[in-house]
Amino acid sequence: MVTEETSQEPPAFPAAAARAVRNPVLRANLRHATHTIRAKRAAAVAELSDWAELRAAGAAIKDHTLRHLDRYLERLETAVTAAGGQVHWAADAAEAGRIVTDLVRATGEREVVKVKSMATQEIELNEVLAEAGITAYETDLAELIVQLGEDRPSHILVPAIHRNRGEIRDIFRERMGRWGRPAPDGLTDSPAELAEAARLHLREKFLRAKVAISGANFMVAETGTLVVVESEGNGRMCLTLPETLISVVGIEKTVPDWRDLEVFLQLLPRSSTAERMNPYTSMWTGTSDRDGPRTFHLVLLDNGRTDALADPVGRQALRCIRCSACLNVCPVYERAGGHAYGSAYPGPIGAVLTPQLRGTGTPVDASLPYASSLCGACYEVCPVAIDIPRILVHLRERVVEGGPASVRGSRVVIKPARGHAAERAAMRAARWALDHPGVLRAGQRLAARTRRLHPDRLPGPGRAWTDSRALPAVPAESFRDWWQRTRGEAGAPGSGRTPDTGRGTA
Amino acid sequence: MRVALFVTCVNDTLYPRTGQAVVTLLERLGVEVAFPAEQSCCGQPQFNTGYRRETEPLARRHARAFRDITHVVTPSGSCAAMVRENYPRIAAGAAAEGRGGPWAEAVAAVAPRTYELTEFLVDVLKVTDVGAYYPHTVTYHPTCHGLRMLGLGDRPRRLLSAVRGLRLRELPGAEECCGFGGTFAVKNAAVSAAMGADKARAVMATGAEAVCTVDNSCAMHIGGTLTRLGSEVRPVHLAEILASTEGDVW
Known about the structure:
The structure holds two protein chains of two kinds.
Chain A: H1 13-21, H2 24-46, H3 51-67, H4 69-82, E1 86-90, H5 93-107, E2 111-114, H6 118-122, H7 125-131, E3 135-138, H8 141-148, H9 165-179, H10 191-208, E4 211-214, E5 218-220, E6 225-230, H11 234-240, E7 244-250, E8 254-255, H12 258-272, E9 280-285, E10 295-301, H13 305-309, H14 325-329, H15 331-336, H16 347-357, H17 363-367, H18 377-381, H19 388-401, E11 403-407, E12 410-414, H20 421-434, H21 437-449, H22 463-466, H23 479-487
Parallel strand pairs in A: 1-10, 2-3, 2-4, 4-7, 5-8, 7-10
Antiparallel strand pairs in A: 5-6, 6-9, 11-12
Chain B: E1 2-5, H1 9-13, H2 16-28, E2 32-34, H3 44-49, H4 52-65, E3 72-74, H5 77-96, H6 102-110, E4 114-116, H7 117-124, E5 137-140, H8 144-150, H9 155-161, E6 167-169, H10 184-187, H11 189-205, E7 210-213, H12 216-228, E8 234-237, H13 238-243
Parallel strand pairs in B: 1-2, 1-3, 3-4, 5-6, 5-7, 7-8
Helix pairs in contact in B: 4-5, 4-6, 5-6, 5-8, 11-12
Organism (chain B): Streptomyces palmae
Pfam families (chain B): CCG
GO molecular function, one term (chain B): oxidoreductase activity
């Protein structure tokens, strides 16, 4: 695959993250928000004595469903169709965009209202619709802030997490009027006033819209029922008022039956908003004569999911229920912010999902598996037990060594990503030295003999360490030399430790 | 009881005192310590950077060095986690790709015989008071792989609590990663440094003289950051605290 270097292409993660780290307002916004929600989640989860069992059940249900996804998707299609809906299959983002555009055009409408949806962010549906002359209005408060600010979402649950109240007030004051009802005069940064301004602005959209576009948190194959969980009620408005509803949903959102849903309706709110139960749970099954949309379309989206499903290690990422608990505990996300991940899915789950959905062909996608210190906090909080560190290491191997993978449904052997030749050579050399203790020992002794000459700051690649960290002092004697000197070959107890072992603080 | 010390390449090369402390401590507790000289690096840097096949010769060497040992003890949560979690995966991967054999079986077999130092003390020797004396104010940073991969839990704190003369200060945000992460520290240097600075400031705010860990690679990052920030607080490995006694203060 040829990748073109264009100005549109997002930079690799380290460069984007380094810029974010230098932005003190962003750092403060993210720190405050992630620490607040992190603590709330921990309290909400601690209330349930059977959390570990729920988590195991969630993982098991998802694994079972993914294993038999072909069967459950056909069951879902049959049930949705029987209930009066129409099912469309989209292999990739482009196909999904075409299907939705044609469906909206067929209604004759030029405007749609949107329920917050990650799948439509993933396929950049708003941009596709805009090219076709159709305006999509985001109705989730945070998505509205992002849309008005001509910005990008930076969090799965809280897309405007990178903004503070003052910034939101300014966006509302300056931009709301261009999209519809302007912000009230004298708007302050009080949360109640900001919410009321959004409510007034959005009400006009809800009452006018004839077409709504949503995603779904779950699809129950048994009955063909779609489920959206939300906090604000904007979703309920979109799902009930318009005449036509189009739902774009990733195929992995399927659950077999209603009993399975029970598990996820406990796992999701506590993990995401730290609520025992989310305020609005909307469920719909096809269409109904007297209520709700007259026409319902379900667009089932693959867009790399079956490729991920083909990977025995990576497929567990498809268990994800988009709660964003992993983002909120991630120390890297907290400093880098969501934009650095270069996709709709930021944070740890994005770092394992995006390179599977899009491949590792671009600089940012190849850098995402490395956007982690492998601390494991994400795995610990994941409500469906996705071993994110393990997938990260697995994808790192794909980046540097290439290997077998599924790309658009075909088994291929992918080549290593470019730009790792020096690293590969260094890793090989290090391995060789470490596999030859004589070489290792000679190196240790050389370092010990020259230790008074070691500079405090290194040139070249070493600067990446010494710019922010002092080097440890090299001791006068390695452990193995001390052991040899004091214990000899037999390993007999001898004299104690050396007087000068040159600790880092010596 | 006889154990073999897996000192780790970082301790061997940069922190020999930690290895000496483990030997001193274990011998004081009546344990006979061997040091198989064939040992080297467990291969974690290669493995975690994506070079799984480069790890195989090192895993093979490691398994050979410790082949007849029932208890392999190491003063590193991270290296213990590497052997315990990833060696069976390396063995299975090699077998699946047609490179298996007795060596791979040996690699998988060393995993359950490997103990991080505090696991060995608390679970095998069943001691928490090792008779240590360390007259300093200390804060404890639980390093991630020990905390989350090994599940060390409160073992290090129980050991520290029993040390005479030691005053333990709570570290705010203790369970947050320090930002070392192996090659992450240089591949994502800006984020790593920001995490390190936050950790170092949290350490400094405790007023402790030393920050204790069970992983000297993390301590190298935290200590190096503390030095750059002009702090006198020094990192110390738990083994050195536990080795210290009134007759032989470390």
